Amino acid sequence: MLLGLRATGGEQARAALDREVTPLLGRTTALSATLLRHAAAGYAVPPLVALLRTWHAGAGEHEQAALAVEVAAVGHTSGAALLLGLAAVLAPRHTPLPIPDPAAAPADGPPRGTS
Questions:
Q1: 4: which of 40, 69, 86, 99 fits an S-S bond (Cβ 3.0–4.6 Å)?
Q2: Please, which residues bridge with residue 112 across strands?
Q3: Which stretches of the chain are DSSP H helices?
Q4: Where on the phi/psi map is residue 111: left (φ > 0), alpha (ψ -120 to 50), or beta?
Q5: Can you give the pLDDT at residue 115?
Q6: Which pLDDT score is estimated for 92?
Q7: For 30-82, what is each residue's pLDDT tens digit?
Q8: CA triple 98-57-49, angle to 5 deg
Q9: Cβ(75)–Cβ(114) below 8 Å
């Protein structure tokens, strides 16, 4: 959600969410806390950056879906969590963002990411 709010210009909502999340960072792993801090600052894994760029550019659903599959492949559950956070931010704006079926994701190679 932090990344989605930054990407959509929801800076007031992002700042408010960041204020709520920051005191809770001690309840998660150091890695997760770092990733949340980076998300609040607007940093993301390359597949998510590519997805957001295509979304901003108004790319077709097929191109966005292919990139969403790449995002879903990040980590064990991190990619899916990233997509759910984005969907939570974008859905109220009625902006389509394809959420891939994890069963349809390619199974070749090890999972990517940090989760």
A1: 86
A2: 74
A3: 2-7, 11-21, 30-41, 46-57, 61-72, 78-90
A4: beta
A5: 45
A6: 65
A7: 988 998 899 888 899 999 999 988 988 888 888 989 999 999 999 888 899 99
A8: 65
A9: yes
DSSP characters for 4-29?
HHHHTT-HHHHHHHHHHHGGGGGGS-
Q: Which amino acid is at 25?
A: L
Using a pLDDT cut of 70, give the percent of the chain over it: 79
Residue 94, by phi and psi: left (phi above 0), alpha (psi -120 to 50) or beta?
left
Mean predicted confidence (pLDDT) in 89-96? 64
Helix (H, G, I), strand (E, B) or coil at 42: coil
List C-alpha distances in Å: 35 to 2, 3, 54, 97, 109: 11, 11, 23, 22, 24
Q: At what angle do helices 61-72 and 46-57 cross, to 10 degrees?
A: 160
